[in-house]
Design brief:
The chain is of the alpha/beta class and 298 residues long. The protein has one domain (7-297): TIM Barrel (Alpha-Beta Barrel). It contains 12 helices and 8 strands. The chain has an 8-stranded parallel barrel, surrounded by 8 helices. Strand 2 (43-48), helix 3 and strand 3 (75-79) form a beta-alpha-beta unit. It is globular, with a radius of gyration of 17 Å. Bound molecules: 3-hydroxy-3-methylglutaryl-coenzyme A and magnesium ion. Magnesium ion binds next to loops.
């Protein structure tokens, strides 16, 4: 990818919907994803293979994947916490999955019911099997700029997990500001520290917007050299195991921000607004995207 393009990873149908009070039927989730593809998004999270007891909103992710099928040039990814999740993802035809760890012990326990070290150990056989089947694996690190339970998280703790996921074979590591507490200076310092251990092309930014800092943090990461960002249509999202955290930075905001400085995203903003209107109506709530709201008023 050239330095004047940015790859957006659309997480609305997973990170977005996992935190909504309403559990949407498979058909609506599929229709959302298809609208996002029509808008030009090419990497999209489509679900999570986790026990419905933990995240009921992601139940039936296998059916979502089967409905979507394969589409040339489009990657549907899903979250898998363990081998059982990977096996379900493979059966549903997934060609890319993501494992998820945290930089904070307290969050790791709450979110995936084990320590950081245990989680990394658990990912080893997941990685081995996925790579053997030619399935790409992305890695997430949560709480990179703060933990909902313990506050500040040392940069060194993040770097350690990033290095391990990369060494294990994750082609890309998404740095998650799960609670959106970060500020641009801290984001820049973090990216620089991670980029001294793994290639910067293997890093992605995943900023939640709880404090309204997500766009500023994206810009800081961009200036530090990051060219992959996670975002969610309409600013949907949060993490059920991160109390109080709101949605990801809205995809509409990122397209506006990036195209506004000459960086191609491949996304058609008008079509994206339609996808946003569709999911807002399905959830019965207004958009959290200020760009979407401004353009609709214009
Ligand atoms: P556990 O309860 O410790 O699991 O959960 P277990 O291994 O003891 O198994 C308990 C039961 O679950 C067993 O069934 C297993 O078969 C079943 P039983 O014998 O009782 O009938 N089970 C499964 N079922 C379906 N799919 C599976 C699976 N695994 C076990 N994959 C576990 C441990 C990791 C499974 C659980 O804690 C979990 O799934 N946590 C995930 C929570 C989650 O999805 N959080 C949100 C995503 S992370 C996020 O949003 C952050 C991110 O956006 C980045 C950021 O913003 O920071 C990525
Ligand atoms: Mg998230």
């Amino acid at each position: 990818m050239s330095m004047d393009a940015v790859r957006l990873v659309e997480v609305g149908a997973r990170d977005g919907l996992q935190n909504e009070a309403l559990t949407l039927p498979v058909e609506v989730r599929v229709a959302l994803i298809e609208r996002l593809v029509a808008a030009g998004l090419r990497t999209l999270e489509a679900g999570a293979f986790v026990p419905p007891r933990w995240v009921p909103q992601m139940a039936d992710s296998d059916r979502v994947l089967r409905h979507l099928g394969q589409r040339p040039g489009v990657t549907y990814t899903t979250l898998v916490p363990n081998l059982q999740g990977l096996d379900a993802a493979l059966q549903a035809g997934c060609r890319e999955v993501a494992v998820f760890a945290a930089a904070s012990e307290a969050f790791s326990q709450k979110n995936i019911n084990c320590s950081i070290a245990e989680s990394l150990q658990r990912f080893q056989p997941v990685m081995a099997k996925a790579l053997e089947q030619g399935v790409a694996v992305r890695g997430y690190v949560s709480c990179v700029l703060g933990c909902p339970f313990t506050g500040d998280v040392p940069v060194a703790d993040v770097v350690r997990v990033v290095r391990e996921l990369h060494a294990m074979g994750c082609y890309e590591i998404s740095l998650g500001d799960t609670i959106g507490r970060g500020t641009p200076g801290k984001a820049r310092t973090l990216i620089q520290a991670c980029a001294s251990e793994v290639p910067i092309t293997a890093l992605a930014g995943h900023f939640h917007d709880t404090y309204g800092m997500a766009v500023a943090n994206v810009q800081a990461a961009l200036e530090a050299g990051v060219r992959v960002f996670d975002s969610s249509v309409s600013g949907l999202g949060g993490c059920p195991y991160s109390p109080g955290a709101t949605g990801n930075v809205a995809t509409e905001e990122l397209v506006y921000l990036l195209e506004g400085q000459g960086l191609a995203t491949g996304v058609d903003l008008a079509a994206l607004l339609e996808a946003g209107a569709f999911i807002d109506a399905a959830l019965g709530k207004p958009s959290a995207s200020r760009v979407a709201n401004a353009l609709r008023r214009a």
